[in-house]
Amino acid sequence: MNLLQRLWWSHRLKGSDYQYLFRRDKTNKTTPKEYISLDCETTSLNPAQAELVTIAATKIIGNKIITSQPFHIRLKAPQSLDQGSVRIHHLRHNDLHNGYHEIDGIKALLAFIGNRPLVGYHIRYDKAILDRACKKHLGFPLPNPLIEVSQLYHQRLERLLPNAYFDLSLETICRHLDLPIQQRHDALQDTITAALIYVRLTYGSQPTPFIPK
Predict the structure, then answer these.
(1) Predicted TM-score of the model (pTM)
(2) 211: exposed, middle or buried (C-beta count within 10 Å: 0-12, 13-18, 19+)?
(3) Which of 164, 173, 210, 212 shows the shortest CA–CA distance to 195?
(4) Cα separation of 130 and 127, whole Å?
(5) Which of 51, 112, 126, 197 yields a CA-CA distance of 20 to 30 A from 141?
(6) What is the DSSP letter of 100?
(7) DSSP-based three-state secondary structure for 108
(8) pLDDT digit string (tens) for 177-210?
């Protein structure tokens, strides 16, 4: 979202509890900037049809990942939850019986993330789903800037080997950066993995151009 769009939404939401989301970040330069690693589990891989099942987020402050205070909620089972969806995230209708209503989950998420930049693996997909839910219930999209960790990884390696091909799968990135590889993925664990990749690439040494097998 560019500056003009932010100004337009800020003006449109004047007097709203959500106007602050579209204001410029005025964080003190001496204070470590905060980011949010985010991941969602949905009923489909099609962003035009997918509905939210779980939402997870973890704060990153400077080079620290705040795993002790995560955001992790389940939503009530959406209509599109079927056997194919269950095979992906292993959450059945019964598992989601006590979940949040979507509007309440979105409001809780906004209170946690604010207008901080969002970090993630395939983060544009997650934002597309959340944008649709936010527009449906609150009338506006998320304003948060995005940081895609696979793109960040590619940029770091391309400095050493321009125009080379790099495997950008999550497992390969973790293996190359010597980060733990989780055998079973869920939304919260994936936020921590994306946060680890971001911190490693931002504050660690330059990765070698050769990916171990």
Answers:
(1) 0.91
(2) middle
(3) 173
(4) 5
(5) 197
(6) B
(7) helix
(8) 999 988 767 899 999 999 999 999 999 988 887 6
